[in-house]
Amino acid sequence: MLNAWRPITWYLSIGLDGLPDNEKSRRFAFNVIMLAGFGAALGYGAFYALYDFDGLRVAWIAAFACTSIILLPLVAIRSLRLALFLGLAVGIWVFTTLSYFLGAGTGLYLYLNIALLAALVVNGKENLTDTIVFCVACIVAMVISAVYFQEPSGIVVVDPRFQLLVLLTVVVAMPLIIAFGVMTLSFRVARAEEALAAEHARSEALLDNLLPAEIAMRLKSSPGSVIADELPEVTILFADIVDFTPRASSMPPDDLVKFLNWVFTEFDRLTEQFGLEKIKTIGDAYMVAAGLPTARPDHAQVIADMALAMLDVTARLTAESGQRIEVRIGLHSGAAIAGVIGTQKVFYDVWGDTVNTASRMESHGEAGRIQLTDEMKQRLGTAYTFEPRGSVEIKGKGLVQTYWLTGKA
């Protein structure tokens, strides 16, 4: 069954490769209509050859129509406009000639409605002048056939019963041909819509992965708008893999990427578990935030829990891999500004003194430890345990009193 459909599938796909979607749809519609026309001409040629074997004039006209129509998709590869003109010319000549031979009572000229439909579907508004010319030509040809060719010419054998039989075939075949064309086109439209829906879903999923869900919704509802929020209370975490530079210089590229993906995938799992927002990775650094884009009262506590869990994860990864994996972690709470930047590769970022201070807490920290400011310690309260580190010189801020977060009370 599949092999039987293969020639039809091949014919319908002639000239489609490399075309843009809108042009591909027009070309496919043209191929469908030509295939339907070929089937109709072939059927009538065989039918009249059996009816009047001695006078094959009508059969030869049908054979000419078959040959012309079946080759037109190849012409369309060079010029769809030329193929449309040729197809229209063949259609008008064939059906007016048949009407002349067999009489208008056969209703054969009504098939020009399919040619008119082809002009509307294939050409449409792309070339309005051609569409109007095609439609006028079809209507004029049908009017001439109906008015001037009412009686058979007498050149071939025709009787009233034969005319009635041909008219019945027109009444039955024309809706079937139109139905075939519409169904074939609708299947293609359905496939295109499915592909479009899948692409849309993929784009939506990608956007949701790049941005917080709330920000993604705002961006989709107001494309091109500036998204910037002033956040009075957030907590920022920076984590950096210790001794990553010498590790990177000694590892093959594939192994290095696999290593980073292995570690950061575990951190991503924690981020999702604690309901936080991963902001970005910068080399071997991992940045996550709490309290944005939606405020939450426990932003400091949940980030502290995340930091402690990261130490547990790196300890487990060390045991599993047999290689020492440690991170420096820095925390700070305060006000910040968050927003979306970029147009091609958009991403959600956070700025402000809070971000800078959290970054300094990490960079001035120690392997396997969580450093935080006195302000962050006060927010956490007595639910956690700390170890004083003393004052640390922070660029742009001077001496800052810091602590190590050691666990939960």
From TrEMBL:
<dbReference type="GO" id="GO:0004016">
    <property type="term" value="F:adenylate cyclase activity"/>
</dbReference>
<keyword id="KW-0456">Lyase</keyword>
<dbReference type="GO" id="GO:0046872">
    <property type="term" value="F:metal ion binding"/>
</dbReference>
<feature type="domain" description="Guanylate cyclase">
    <location>
        <begin position="235"/>
        <end position="362"/>
    </location>
</feature>
<keyword id="KW-0115">cAMP biosynthesis</keyword>
<feature type="transmembrane region" description="Helical">
    <location>
        <begin position="57"/>
        <end position="75"/>
    </location>
</feature>
<keyword id="KW-0067">ATP-binding</keyword>
<dbReference type="GO" id="GO:0005886">
    <property type="term" value="C:plasma membrane"/>
</dbReference>
<feature type="transmembrane region" description="Helical">
    <location>
        <begin position="162"/>
        <end position="182"/>
    </location>
</feature>
<dbReference type="GO" id="GO:0006171">
    <property type="term" value="P:cAMP biosynthetic process"/>
</dbReference>
<dbReference type="InterPro" id="IPR001054">
    <property type="entry name" value="A/G_cyclase"/>
</dbReference>
<protein>
    <recommendedName>
        <fullName>Adenylate cyclase</fullName>
        <ecNumber>4.6.1.1</ecNumber>
    </recommendedName>
</protein>
<feature type="transmembrane region" description="Helical">
    <location>
        <begin position="28"/>
        <end position="51"/>
    </location>
</feature>
<feature type="transmembrane region" description="Helical">
    <location>
        <begin position="82"/>
        <end position="102"/>
    </location>
</feature>
<dbReference type="GO" id="GO:0007189">
    <property type="term" value="P:adenylate cyclase-activating G protein-coupled receptor signaling pathway"/>
</dbReference>
<dbReference type="GO" id="GO:0005524">
    <property type="term" value="F:ATP binding"/>
</dbReference>
<feature type="transmembrane region" description="Helical">
    <location>
        <begin position="131"/>
        <end position="150"/>
    </location>
</feature>
<dbReference type="InterPro" id="IPR048432">
    <property type="entry name" value="MASE7"/>
</dbReference>
<dbReference type="InterPro" id="IPR018297">
    <property type="entry name" value="A/G_cyclase_CS"/>
</dbReference>
<dbReference type="Pfam" id="PF20967">
    <property type="entry name" value="MASE7"/>
</dbReference>
<keyword id="KW-0812">Transmembrane</keyword>
<comment type="similarity">
    <text>Belongs to the adenylyl cyclase class-4/guanylyl cyclase family.</text>
</comment>
<keyword id="KW-0547">Nucleotide-binding</keyword>
<keyword id="KW-0479">Metal-binding</keyword>
<dbReference type="GO" id="GO:0035556">
    <property type="term" value="P:intracellular signal transduction"/>
</dbReference>
<keyword id="KW-1133">Transmembrane helix</keyword>
<dbReference type="Pfam" id="PF00211">
    <property type="entry name" value="Guanylate_cyc"/>
</dbReference>
<keyword id="KW-0460">Magnesium</keyword>
<feature type="transmembrane region" description="Helical">
    <location>
        <begin position="108"/>
        <end position="124"/>
    </location>
</feature>
<comment type="subunit">
    <text>Homodimer. Can also exist as monomer.</text>
</comment>
<keyword id="KW-0472">Membrane</keyword>
<dbReference type="InterPro" id="IPR029787">
    <property type="entry name" value="Nucleotide_cyclase"/>
</dbReference>
